[in-house]
Task: structure prediction
Amino acid sequence: MREIAGVPLRQLLNAVGEPLVDVLAAPGGFDAEVRDVVLVDPEEEVAARAGDFALVIGARGRAAMPLVRAAARDGAVAVAVKVGAEQDARALRDTAIDAGIALLGVRPEVRWEQLESFARTAVDNARLTGDADLGEALGDLFSLAQTVAAMTDGTVTIEDTANRVLAYSRSDDEVDELRRLSILGRQGPESYLAKLRDWGVYQRLRAGEEVVRIEERPDLGIRRRKAIGIHAGSQPLGTIWVQEGRRPLSEDSDRALLGAARVAALHLVRQRTEAHAGPRFRENLLAGLLDGRVDARSVAANIGADPAKPAVVVVFALRPDPEHAGADRSERELELAELSSLISVHAAAYRRSALVTTTGSRVHVLLPDLPERSGASAALGLAQEIAGAARQHLRAQVQAGVGSAVPTLDEVADSRTEADRVLEAMAQDLGGGIATIADVRARVVISELLTVLHGDERFRDSRLAALHRHDAEHGAGLAPSLLAYLEHFGDVRGAAQRLHVHPNTLRYRVKRAAEITGIDLSDPTERLNAQLQLLAARRGR
Result:
């Protein structure tokens, strides 16, 4: 009897993942096959079977712990539970890890019949398409080719092991006959391929992560090239070629090719084994890990990292550009996508197990497996390298917050929180580039104080609110004048110069502000409170 076909857990998660469920633990990895979906209710005697995805519909939180253990004993691959409070989520996660079963947390608003329908559809589709030619999704590879072209100052093609062109970069540079024929014919000319074989180029490309140089051949109309093999372990998947144009290839082209080959390997493996899987699986895992939702060992097993080694999180954002404040959403998203692609290449070249995810307008990078003593400095160096590459290749200015190194992967949420705090503290400083908590500690403290002041009406001073109302009604500019005066420690001339007004004008405004608010500006505590209140109001606007 033929065994029933199933769907790998990772493929199921791509089908039913966000926004329905969150991965909380996967101690056995994501390759186990799910063969069926079963509803488990403590009021009914329905047991899971080997290969099942069990939906626990009759219990939530800690009450579901016995059902999680029972599903694991019965051989289920994964179990879905509505977890409730954060403490319940941690207890359920520990239970699932001990039992050796994947745990999915179901969002409170999700209906069980909706989740069951998605899951059954995913399993049924896997059975129907298991032996079919699912084709190739090449959009990501074209984006990668364009990124590598920008980083190397060359023109790029990505080919499979049969020398078929999968993707290529756009170029207004000079291209040789080989590139033209390769793209038009979707495959390199056989006469030249034979020469590459004779020269031992393909043998070297298949052997490992060596960047191979192919010198110019004017007699054949062929320019200088570099190439690197794309591998999954020891298995060759294809090749990335970069052709030199009018300018020599960049000094960092070897490093760019190394990172690009590792990123391309993920795309090609996904196309072979997960043609229906969304591209955000690894990103979703990272997002869950950074939020503290996903078990670190489950993520480590999936990316080939050591969960017991130090790790760092770095967060990047495009620096605000007042000249492009009116850019539409698609333009901003394109810039962010290009930045994310560039970061992915650099991060992969630095650490094969690096993970990159885009959250809103920020790009978070996880760097695991770091050295014990130099992890933070290495992350800072990588951030500086990425910022330089963004300026050179994307003409973009970025800001980056570098979190402190944490001892294990379990603690990366702390590094992420710190990196975000650093970036937020830099938000008002358009000239700021890259920083750690040591660089901006004072700004981080003030930034968090301002967040509390702005977010809780109990701490707002009504006297300053009256000043803002007066400004709104009369256009007097008293609040910004008072803030400038306080920030210059009472130096009237310095504050007036910053505001481009006469010192006497500033003196009058400060006097009027004191009269309207009733604040005693000779009291240092009152001055500090006024300055914080004014800064919080400015942030809110």
